[in-house]
Amino acid sequence: MSSAAENGDTAPGKQNEEKTYKKTASSAIKGAIQLGIGYTVGNLTSKPDRDVLMQDFYVVESVFLPSEGSNLTPAHHYPDFRFKTYAPLAFRYFRELFGIKPDDYLYSICSEPLIELSNPGASGSLFFVTSDDEFIIKTVQHKEAEFLQKLLPGYYMNLNQNPRTLLPKFYGLYCMQSGGINIRIVVMNNVLPRSMRMHFTYDLKGSTYKRRASRKEREKSSPTFKDLDFLQDMHEGLYFDTETYNALMKTLQRDCRVLESFKIMDYSLLLGIHILDHTLKEKEEEISQNVPDAKRPGTQKVLYSTAMESIQGPGKSGDGIITENPDTMGGIPAKSHKGEKLLLFMGIIDILQSYRLMKKLEHSWKALVYDGDTVSVHRPSFYADRFLKFMNSRVFKKIQALKASPSKKRCNSIAALKATSQEIVSSISQEWKDEKHDLLTEGQSFSSLDEEALGSRHRPDLVPSTPSLFEAASLATTISSSSLYVNEHYPHDRTTLYSNSK
Asked: Dihedrals φ, ψ of 18, to 5°?
């Protein structure tokens, strides 16, 4: 999966050339997908809802669709084919878990022609996206489909325990049989919405061995870059606020441990970066060019599965962003090292790679020629640790509140000095009141009063009382209420004493 694949770009000059997969035209594959899913989902609605049982994960339903049609199936213009549905009840539960109703699922896949996407990957798979941007349909190899089928019970358990996940969300596994050829397809969530332009797209594995986009890939209108390209372009990483960063890293750690437990490796993080700080003119051009998105109902949810919901769940954080600002399409807010405001779209892809004998042999051979720790193929535990370390240290970073800590320290020091100064001032105020009372009772003259009241320890040349008061207040950067009380009444007391002496 890639930026070009997700954004619906095809290679220039090849838009009129129809692709083939296993000697089957892509148009025939698309037609068979829509007819088969339309029949099987419609037939599933007649079955009552119940809990998923263990044997449901191994059920395979099959229907034959001849070109001339039958009592159960419509006529079509494609060769006769048989359509198989794997674990229909289990996948129905998965769709319900993600809030996808049967009618919406059918409408998204069957109402409009599927859009074929280009694929820069080495697997040779075909990619299709639904016209409403909701689902990705990918052809998979026999071993991948078989592995997904074995993975379903554990996948079911993981989704029940952790609905917040960046792992692929599988909505259906099917197989089209025609002319002795089996074409297996899987329906998944769309990670990068086409209606949101991705200024940069990366396929990250945490590996550095040959992890740079090819020259052919770079010439595309929306290339997909790799790890070494990211380290060169975004050498400072991407920055999040503390809450978002913690939620993202927690989700990644949990997902990697799940993949490790299933002995899965060689997966990638598909990362799409949309720069919000671009001009309004560019946004207007994007809106005018996205004609299919203009047909979307205004009340429809942005996407069934968004990046923000994947790390924070469909609670207040995810829904708040969707309802308050639909333009974000559920992207995760972040900043670049230049201070640019970004929206990030991401998901873990290509998880149907098990560390089997062939992968072990591949790693052993590459380790003899190259540094074994840098190649992408590796044992699952090492792969997960290297993947997480790369994401945590090189890709995603937390915004450090540099100005917050000193101000807090200063506030704490001010509070402490304030308390100290108030104690000093209150003691001085009490001493002055006691001294004033003694002088009034004795009825001394102004001259003797001046000598004793303003003198300090029989030193008439020093006046420490009032200066010490202001020194204590200045340390706290403010004058306490007690000091103001003493200073306001000091001249008044002197006037009263002077009149009494007269």
From this structure: -85, 130
Encoded tokens for 304: 């069934």
pTM of the model: 0.69
DSSP, collapsed to helix, strand or coil, labels residue 397 as strand
Give the integer Cα–Cα distance in Å for 385 and 206.
9
> In the 8-state DSSP scheme, what is residue 394?
I
Cα separation, 310 vs 307, whole angstroms: 5
Nearest to 361 by CA among 349, 375, 350, 351: 375
* DSSP string of 152-193, one letter each residue: HHHHHHHHHH-----S--EEEEEEEEETTEEEEEEEEE-SS-
Residue with tokens 């009592």: 71
305 neighbors 189 (Cβ within 8 angstroms): yes
Block means of pLDDT (10 residues each) for the chain, 502 residues, are: 42 56 84 92 86 92 91 88 94 91 93 82 80 92 92 89 90 92 94 89 90 90 92 92 94 94 92 80 54 42 76 53 57 91 94 63 48 59 93 91 49 51 54 53 45 45 44 42 44 45 42
Same domain for 201 and 137:
no
Claim to verify: residue 119 and residue 150 sit in the same structural domain: yes
| Cβ count near 408 (within 10 Å) | 11
Query: 276 and 226, same structural domain?
Result: yes
The answer to whether residues 253 and 392 belong to one domain is: yes
| Same domain membership, residue 206 and residue 224 | yes
